[in-house]
């Protein structure tokens, strides 16, 4: 039988505030275990929480960037459940009156644009972190670090509008980009500041009723999200084809084994016994304040992509790659502002720049080559001072030393030879030394030309102007 995959994502993102949501403890990552804590976030008797105003601002900012309605009246609730990483035995979250509802996010997969609905965006506090001696499913013992308890979170819940693992990955990539553009989260999945749980079910093609879903946890990267959902769709299809039924349960993605494993059954809906948080007053949001935040939003990825295509003639693909990261888009704009040709700047950023960045495991903000330096190198190449091949060598040296391109070119004598007389002498020498290749070329074998060009570049240590070399070779032969 042919099935339709139905996926909904619940994304939690930690906010970039200096202090926690209801107390003054630091949110810094990597501190010694159980040191960023106080009586409030540990839930000791007699303490009272106070909302961090920056959290509310970031929540409104996120809701607006995702096309949501900001509710004028919002409140916190207690979500009651017991788990070792939850010291109060309840989580302060939002239930029936979240801060933002009815949003959307547009994604493009295989040339098709689809709109994914966003049900809600709400604020809540994070729980602590369980450190397992082993895997989440098989551990000898587990330790608890409460540093993360009370770190402000936004939960962003999508509608079940996603129809493939590939679409889920595209949704997460776009959501991450938006959160980084509006500067509310660093979205570092490796540090847990962007986390995703996925709900997935299958139904026969043409059916409108939703199938029984499984929830997948422990998806620690975009690649894990895609692989986990692909596996789970295959598993559920296999069960259904064999006449079995899908059990509503929570499953964990085991990356080492490449499969999901059952954690616990969810046959009965969990009753969290929500009730309004009595220690926090409701929030009445001033519409004028909301509009001030709306006006402060930066140019978002889709608008920026459209601008790069319109203003600089970049292709849809190139503009999409450049604007997928705010840091990359900012670097591109700065490089062009420094005088670089836009298309050349895009090619450098998607080519050598990204290659060295990935090889070094660096963020763009840590790049040792400033936009103005890259623009100067692009200018040297455009003027013919250096060849394309030499420019790559110069760029690697700039990356290693931080020196300007012009300095490296001068120090290492890398100026391109564009003097026709000087190049002719080398061309004639190579032609004389390789009569068989010359004969092959005259017989129609174009590949022979490439060999001869290579010999000339070798003789000139890569400094001869390639276009001039090609022109003179053809003329002389």
Automatic annotation (TrEMBL):
Keyword annotations of the record: ATP-binding, Ligase, Nucleotide-binding, Protein biosynthesis
InterPro entries found in the cross-reference section: Asn/Gln-tRNA_amidoTrfase_suB/E (IPR017959), Asn/Gln-tRNA_Trfase_suB/E_cat (IPR006075), Asn/Gln_amidotransferase (IPR018027), Asn/Gln_tRNA_amidoTrase-B-like (IPR003789), GatB (IPR004413), GatB_C_1 (IPR042114), GatB_Yqey_C_2 (IPR023168), Gln-tRNA_amidoTrfase_suB_CS (IPR017958)
Coiled coil: none
EC number: 6.3.5.-
Transmembrane segments: none
SUPFAM superfamilies named among the record's database cross-references: GatB/YqeY motif, Glutamine synthetase/guanido kinase
SMART domains in UniProt: GatB_Yqey (SM00845)
PANTHER family: GLUTAMYL-TRNA GLN AMIDOTRANSFERASE SUBUNIT B MITOCHONDRIAL AND PROKARYOTIC PET112-RELATED, GLUTAMYL-TRNA(GLN) AMIDOTRANSFERASE SUBUNIT B, MITOCHONDRIAL
Summary of subunit composition and partner proteins: Heterotrimer of A, B and C subunits.
Record-stated family: Belongs to the GatB/GatE family. GatB subfamily.
Protein's name according to its UniProt entry: Aspartyl/glutamyl-tRNA(Asn/Gln) amidotransferase subunit B
Organism annotation: Anaeroselena agilis
Gene: gatB
